[in-house]
Every structure is written in structure tokens, then in C-alpha cells.
Task: structure prediction
Amino acid sequence: MFYFMMSLCVKLCLILVALTPSIADISSYVPQITQKVPVGNLTSSTFLLDQPQCVFNTSGVNEVWLVVALNSVTPTLKNENLGVPVNCSSFPVTKYYYTLRVFEKNYPCNLTNNVLAVLDVGSQTNCTDIQFCNCPLHSTEVYRVKFVVLSNTGFVGATNWSSPIKLKEVMNYTSITLPLLRSEGMIGLTAILGILLAVFLICIIVALFIGSRNIFWHRRLDSNKWVSTDLEYRGTYKKQPLHNVYIG
Ligand SMILES: *[C@@H]1O[C@H](CO)[C@@H](O)[C@H](O)[C@H]1NC(C)=O
Ligand SMILES: *[C@@H]1O[C@H](CO)[C@@H](O)[C@H](O)[C@H]1NC(C)=O
Ligand SMILES: *[C@@H]1O[C@H](CO)[C@@H](O)[C@H](O)[C@H]1NC(C)=O
Ligand SMILES: *[C@@H]1O[C@H](CO)[C@@H](O)[C@H](O)[C@H]1NC(C)=O
Ligand SMILES: *[C@@H]1O[C@H](CO)[C@@H](O)[C@H](O)[C@H]1NC(C)=O
Ligand SMILES: *[C@@H]1O[C@H](CO)[C@@H](O)[C@H](O)[C@H]1NC(C)=O
Ligand SMILES: *[C@@H]1O[C@H](CO)[C@@H](O)[C@H](O)[C@H]1NC(C)=O
Result:
């Protein structure tokens, strides 16, 4: 009898272990800045996040949101406080907001080849009258993000927080140029710039002469998906499936 109980227990344990991967534990997923693009994963107002794949229940009907928060408030933002979406316009007060609302099934495991699974956070510049806008970020702040799953009764689950995300500093144009304007090297600098400009123009004329078909890098940029700045996808570079997927 004892051995029977033991073997039953072992079997049950094995079954549980086997089941574990299919019952996705989304809380261990950590959102990442993408490494899939050579440039542009961080700008002064946006960052590119890897789209979560095989993280959420792909047959699920719940909503998935991206929570964007100041790093400084994340220790106080417990999951039980994340059941109600916060509009971007409240960010100055709350220090966090929700955006990129989709259904779980909109983050599938597989994507077709010509689709780059990244999310462009902060890419919506015109937020007038847009609920839960993917609004531009501030270069001076440090952010963290997490995905939150909500049903119509509230909080269902959440991923872990990302690492702190520091955007690219904006060049302070006035403080850079003012000392130069005053310095005596200004004339020399102008002369050098003039020469460089002339050389540049000559190069362009030569290039045009040789033939515009040879400007191959232009074509490559055109055909690469990551160059797309389509804002209508509200932050994603996916070309087809997520069209009009973001709700509201
Ligand atoms: C979330 O990440 C932190 C480190 O950033 C880690 O200590 C913690 O265990 C993670 N939580 C889960 C549920 O994976
Ligand atoms: C941005 O992408 C580059 C190249 O893929 C990578 O080396 C860098 O670590 C990325 N930045 C972050 C913050 O992940
Ligand atoms: C995934 O979602 C479907 C539809 O809501 C549900 O029936 C199923 O139990 C869910 N699976 C998991 C592992 O939560
Ligand atoms: C995902 O792609 C792999 C091969 O690339 C395929 O075997 C698998 O069936 C696909 N899964 C889904 C859900 O489409
Ligand atoms: C911003 O959006 C509003 C309404 O959606 C529109 O009236 C306005 O013209 C837009 N502004 C710009 C600069 O696109
Ligand atoms: C949500 O925020 C946008 C600006 O980011 C604003 O235009 C809109 O009125 C806000 N909605 C509500 C209900 O406050
Ligand atoms: C540029 O720098 C000056 C002086 O350091 C500062 O007063 C100004 O606010 C800065 N401008 C921006 C846009 O950061």
C-alpha cells in the first residue's frame, strides 16, 4: 500500500512537472530592450521593446497592457494596484501609465518572417483625444515597463519589471553652440565647414553622375521593416497582423 501511494505521488509530481510549461508563468518574463535592430533601440523619446512571444495564453480573451513607470515608483507599484488602466495624461501625477492595449492572442508564438516583433514605446506624438496614448517619453527620466493582463473583473497577472531603461540624452544645442560663437576659432571653423560642404557637394554631384541606381543603401533601408515609422500601428513595427489591433 505504501509503495502504491509512493508511486502514485511520484506519478502525480511528474504530471505536474510536465504540465508546468504549458501553464505559462508570465511573472518570470522580463521585458527586454530589443537587440534585433542595429540602431534605434533607444532614442531621446522612445525605446524599442521585444514583443513578448509565447508568454501569454494565445487562446486567451483577456487584455494585455504595457505599464510604463518611472523607475523611482516601481517599488511601490504592487500588482494589486495595477488592476485599473491609467491614462497617459495622468502620468505627471501617477508617474506611470498604461498603453498598447491588445488581446492575449495578439502576442502569438510565431510571427511570419517579414514581421519584426518589436514594440516602439513612446512613438505616438499626437496624443490629443487619444485614450491610453503611447505618448513620448522624457530623455531625462529612467523608466521600467511590465506587461499586465486584465480581465473585465480586473487584475489577472503580470510579467516582471524590465531593467531600468535610460533614454538617450538630448544634445543641449544652446550650451554647445554659444561658447563656439564667442571663440576666435569661429572663423576658422566656418572656413573648415565651408570646405567640407564643398567636398560633400562635389561627392553628391559625382554620385549622381555615376548613377543613382548605385546608391544601394537607400534601397536596403526601404526594404527593411525596422525603418518603418508607421504610427498607425501605435508602437509596433509589425506590418500586417496588428493593423487596428490596438483597442481604443
Ligand atoms: C523579478 O526580477 C527580480 C530581479 O529584477 C527578481 O529578484 C525576482 O525574483 C523576479 N520575480 C519573478 C517572479 O521572477
Ligand atoms: C541596443 O542594440 C544594440 C545592438 O543590437 C545593443 O548592443 C545594445 O545593448 C542595445 N541597447 C540596450 C539598452 O539593450
Ligand atoms: C487560455 O484561455 C482559454 C480561453 O479563455 C481558457 O479556456 C484556458 O483555460 C486558458 N489557458 C490557461 C493555461 O490559462
Ligand atoms: C511555430 O513555428 C514552428 C516552426 O517554425 C512550427 O513547428 C510550429 O507549429 C509553429 N507554431 C504555431 C503555433 O504556429
Ligand atoms: C492630432 O489629432 C487631432 C485629433 O485626432 C487632430 O485634430 C489634429 O489635427 C492632430 N494634430 C496633428 C499635428 O497631427
Ligand atoms: C488621455 O490622455 C490624452 C492625452 O495624452 C488626452 O487627450 C485625453 O483627453 C485623456 N483622456 C482622459 C479620459 O483623461
Ligand atoms: C540647456 O542648458 C542650459 C544651461 O545649461 C539650461 O538652462 C537649459 O534649460 C538647457 N535646455 C534644455 C532643453 O535642456
About this structure: DSSP finds five helices and seven strands in the chain. The pocket of 2-acetamido-2-deoxy-beta-D-glucopyranose (ligand 6) is lined by residues 87-89, 127-131, 133, 135 (CB under 6 Å). Confidence is low (pLDDT under 50) at residues 12-23, 215-233, 238-244. Strands lie at 47-50, 63-70, 96-103, 118-121, 142-151, 154-158, 165-166.
